[in-house]
């Protein structure tokens, strides 16, 4: 029997009998066409989850973090329980809503490596969409990923598969579904949960004025935290990295003036880098409560001349002084407004300056500007910014990166504020100093390299409030920097009340996602049918081996005769 089988095999090889060759070698072909090696069948990349928090009892963002579903793009007809992949350049709010309406399993938005390379119309469109995405609470996990070659390849393959399903016939769709490769998207983390006892830190420092104990105090405030649709992607270069950089430069300049008795002014300068600014100014709120309600001796209780809040000062040719109540003539607040107008008009005529009056709306979930926290406690305060409206989308966007900062505008705005503030606390105008007198020149000039390096440091890292605790490297560096120029530098902390928390943060904001190359479930059915057919043919061939042997002999003889 074995000899006959050997003869049959030899005859098959010599005669190139196609049906039997197919029968014998199809397993080898299937092995060759099998799944790719493990290194090519999976790709691991980092993803950043959309915001999830509660503010004043109102939830925002996405409530889910777990993902284990097959990838599709918006071109597919059916998105239910699928991971919908979108590229930023093709992203629209309508597509996002479509995915949510169809109960998508997840949404992954792919960002380019360099935000600066994105067309400005795409950037502006996405900045306007971000608040709407956060306002629409959803159970669908929403992630952001930075593109790489492998991820773009996965996207293009998924897009091609999704598009072909929408335009092909039913038979073509069935065949494509059975033979095409798909990608299973899986996150490695657990479901998100609330972070208990999270502290929001702030940093305070001061320069004590020369003279008696009851000196007026000028408070200079800027919040350091950033905000965007995804915390780990929120670098906040302009909002409010520029505000903090101006605050630190003012601390450096006035520390030099306060070093010498001849230039030591009769004003206390209190600097406050607040945390939780993007969450209704929680750091400032608690700081005011601690200083006004829970202590008997505080610079904020004694004699506050005014509070100057710095917010978004890194670009543009305009400056706006936002007030809740227009300052009255004869007050230091009005003097500062007058000095700002004078410095801009005489030294920087290209800058458009205006005062913007907006009453405090306590019915809103969020206060418009940081100075409103002080105004509520009846402290004279205003915010200076190049933005005319608090609703500008730049204040809360992951698109706010270092490339958007105009260094010349930042230096100019720093100088305008420093010149006006100096003219107030030294009373230079009443002493006859000309309007075009430039104070910060030569050795006292603003240091461009230092201001740029501070701006680079601030914008090189995400500064979302959920990512910065009292022991973070960022906060320690900020505290050290302020300690170089200020006295009595210390931290203040805010912790949400356990019974009725004003804010609640959640974890799982950064995860690792794996994309596994998989075949669809129908492929297993098709493969089972093919294997059954193959085994059936093999079984019939074995059962009728004698007949098969004779047929092969006849074919072999014909071949030899030819």
Automatic annotation (TrEMBL):
GO biological process: regulation of signal transduction
PANTHER family hit by this protein: NICALIN (PTHR31826)
The family this protein is said to belong to: Belongs to the nicastrin family.
Peptidase M28 domain sequence ranges: 216-418
Name used for this protein in its record: Nicalin
Compartment(s) where it occurs, according to its Swiss-Prot or TrEMBL record: Endoplasmic reticulum membrane
GO cellular component, one term: endoplasmic reticulum membrane
Keywords for the protein's UniProt record, in alphabetical order: Endoplasmic reticulum, Glycoprotein, Membrane, Signal, Transmembrane, Transmembrane helix
Any single Pfam family the record assigns to this protein: Peptidase_M28
Signal sequence, renumbered to the chain: 1-41
Gene3D superfamilies named among the record's database cross-references: Zn peptidases
Role this protein plays: May antagonize Nodal signaling and subsequent organization of axial structures during mesodermal patterning.
Ranges that cross the membrane: 525-549
Lineage start: Eukaryota, Metazoa, Chordata, Craniata, Vertebrata
Membrane topology: Single-pass membrane protein
Broad class of the protein's primary localization: endoplasmic reticulum
SUPFAM superfamilies associated with the record: Zn-dependent exopeptidases (SSF53187)
């Amino acid at each position: 029997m074995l000899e006959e089988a050997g003869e049959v095999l030899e005859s098959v090889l010599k005669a190139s009998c196609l049906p039997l060759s197919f029968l014998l070698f199809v397993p080898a072909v299937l092995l060759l066409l099998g799944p790719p090696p493990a290194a090519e069948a999976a790709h691991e990349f980092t993803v950043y989850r959309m915001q999830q928090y509660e503010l004043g009892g109102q939830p925002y963002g996405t409530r889910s973090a777990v993902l284990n579903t097959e990838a599709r793009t918006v071109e597919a007809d059916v998105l239910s329980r699928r991971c919908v992949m979108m590229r930023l350049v093709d992203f629209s709010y309508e597509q996002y809503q479509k995915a949510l309406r169809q109960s998508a399993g997840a949404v992954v938005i792919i960002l380019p490596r360099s935000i600066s390379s994105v067309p400005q119309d795409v950037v502006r469109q996405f900045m306007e969409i971000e608040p709407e995405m956060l306002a629409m609470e959803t159970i669908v996990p929403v992630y952001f990923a930075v593109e790489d070659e492998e991820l773009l390849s996965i996207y293009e393959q998924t897009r091609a598969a999704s598009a072909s399903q929408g335009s092909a016939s039913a038979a073509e769709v069935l065949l494509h579904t059975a033979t095409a490769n798909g990608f299973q998207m899986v996150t490695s983390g657990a479901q998100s949960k609330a972070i208990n006892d999270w502290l929001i830190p702030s940093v305070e420092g001061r320069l004590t004025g020369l003279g008696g104990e009851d000196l007026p105090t000028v408070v200079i405030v800027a919040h350091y935290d950033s905000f965007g649709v995804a915390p780990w992607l929120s670098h906040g270069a302009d909002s409010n990295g520029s505000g903090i950089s101006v605050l630190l430069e003012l601390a450096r300049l006035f520390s030099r003036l306060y070093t010498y008795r001849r230039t030591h002014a009769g004003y206390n300068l209190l600097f406050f880098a607040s945390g939780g600014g993007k969450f209704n100014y929680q750091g400032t709120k608690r700081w005011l409560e601690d200083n006004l309600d829970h202590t008997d001796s505080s610079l904020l209780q004694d004699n506050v001349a005014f509070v100057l809040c710095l917010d978004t000062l890194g670009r543009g040719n305009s400056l706006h002084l936002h007030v809740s109540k227009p300052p009255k003539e004869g007050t230091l607040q009005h003097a500062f407004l007058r000095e700002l107008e004078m410095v801009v008009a005489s030294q920087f005529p290209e800058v458009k300056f205006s005062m913007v009056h907006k009453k405090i709306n306590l019915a809103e979930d969020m206060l418009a500007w940081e100075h409103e926290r002080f105004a509520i406690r009846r402290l004279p305060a205003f915010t200076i910014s190049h933005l005319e409206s608090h609703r500008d989308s730049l204040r809360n966007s992951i698109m706010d990166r270092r490339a958007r900062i105009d260094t010349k505008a930042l230096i100019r705005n720093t100088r305008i504020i420093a010149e006006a503030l100096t003219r107030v606390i030294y009373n230079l105008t009443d002493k006859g100093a000309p309007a075009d007198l430039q104070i910060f020149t030569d050795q006292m000039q603003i240091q461009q390299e230092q201001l740029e390096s501070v701006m680079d440091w601030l914008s090189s890292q995400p500064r979302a409030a959920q990512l910065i605790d009292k022991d973070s490297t960022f906060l320690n560096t900020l505290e050290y920097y302020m300690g170089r120029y200020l006295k009595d530098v210390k931290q203040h902390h805010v912790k949400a009340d356990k019974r009725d928390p004003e804010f609640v943060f959640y974890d799982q904001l950064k995860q690792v996602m794996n994309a596994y190359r998989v075949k669809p479930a129908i492929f297993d059915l098709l493969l089972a049918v093919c294997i059954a057919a193959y085994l059936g043919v093999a079984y019939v061939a074995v059962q009728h081996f004698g007949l098969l042997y004779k047929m092969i002999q006849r074919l072999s003889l014909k071949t030899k005769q030819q």
